[in-house]
Amino acid sequence: MKRLVILGGGESGAGAAKLGKKLGYEVFLSDKGKLADKYKRMLEELGVEYEEGQHSEERIFTADLVVKSPGIPDKLPMIVGLREKGIEVISEIEFAGRHTDAKMYCITGSNGKTTTTLLLYHILEKAGYDVGLAGNVGNSLAAQVADDLHRVYVVELSSFQLDGMFQFRCDTAILTNITPDHLDRYDYKFENYANSKFRILNNMRKEDLFIYGYDCEVVRERVERGDVVPEAVGFTYTDCVGVNAYMDGNTVVARWGNREFRIAKQEITIQGRHNVYNAMAAILAALKAGVSDEDLRKGLTTFPQVEHRLETVDVVNGVTYINDSKATNVDSAWYALDSMHAPVVWIAGGTDKGNDYSALFDLVKEKVKLLICMGVDNKKLIESFSPICEVVDTHSLDETMEVAYRRAEKGDVVLLSPCCASFDLFKNYENRGEMFKEKVKSLK
Question: Any binding-site annotation on 108?
Answer without folding.
Answer: no
